Amino acid sequence: GCGNSALSHDLHELGYTDVTSIDFSPACIAAMRARYARCPGLRWAVMDIRALAFPDASFDVVLEKGTLDVLMVEETDPWDVSPQAAASMRRVLAEVSRVLRPGGCFISITFAQPHFRKPHYAQEAFGWSLRHTACGDGDAGAFHYFLYTMRKGQPLDPRDVALGRRLHQPPPPPAPP
């Protein structure tokens, strides 16, 4: 979901002239098409991230900045994500994996800390490796954000595999009274 962010245009200005942006809002996409009509390498499409209309292996890079956070917005406990939210996240990530070319890179930028987000990304079925970096200006009072990088066709670290498996384990039985 590109929203009304200038990121696509900024990438274009940096020399990335083949950028496709999607959002589920037709009004948003119409406004972005009009705003950046002078940039022919920028393409805009109305689309749901859970059902991408692109062919398999059609992108070298997929970049999301806060879009996946929307899937978790109604969650009240980040340690115990609802089955519905987890399924939505899996659906989106499976679609991202599907449209990435071998060797392609998925970049996710979010405020979600690794102990909450890595288990979602660390699924062997997606066929990618996983790295993360904390970003911020070093000010102790500032919020850090996180950059997650997944590379299609590279293996997950065994510790990340274990994280991903924990996400799908059934909860333990209640303790006896």
What do these coordinates show?
The chain has 177 residues and is of the alpha/beta class. It has 2 domains: 1-47, no CATH class; 58-167, Rossmann fold. It has helices at residues 7-13, 26-35, 83-99, 114-121, 158-167, and strands at 19-23, 42-46, 59-65, 100-110, 131-135, 145-151. The longest helix is centred in the middle third of the chain and has 17 residues, at 83-99. The radius of gyration is 18 Å and the shape is globular. The mean pLDDT is 90. GO terms for molecular function: S-adenosylmethionine-dependent methyltransferase activity. This is EFMT4 methyltransferase.
Summarize the model shown:
This protein has 177 residues and is an alpha/beta fold. The chain is built from 5 helices and 6 strands; from the N terminus they run H-E-H-E-E-H-E-H-E-E-H. Helix 4 crosses helix 5 (158-167).
Q: Tell me the strand percentage band.
A: 15-25%
Tally of domains: 2
Structure summary, number of beta strands: 6
Radius of gyration: 18 Å
What is the CATH topology of the largest domain?
A: Rossmann fold
Share of helix among residues? Answer: 25-40%
Query: What is the CATH architecture term of the largest domain?
Result: 3-Layer(aba) Sandwich
CATH class of the largest domain: Alpha Beta
Helix and strand content put the structural class at alpha/beta
The main sheet orders its strands as: 3-4-6-5
**Name given to the CATH homologous superfamily of the largest domain:** Vaccinia Virus protein VP39
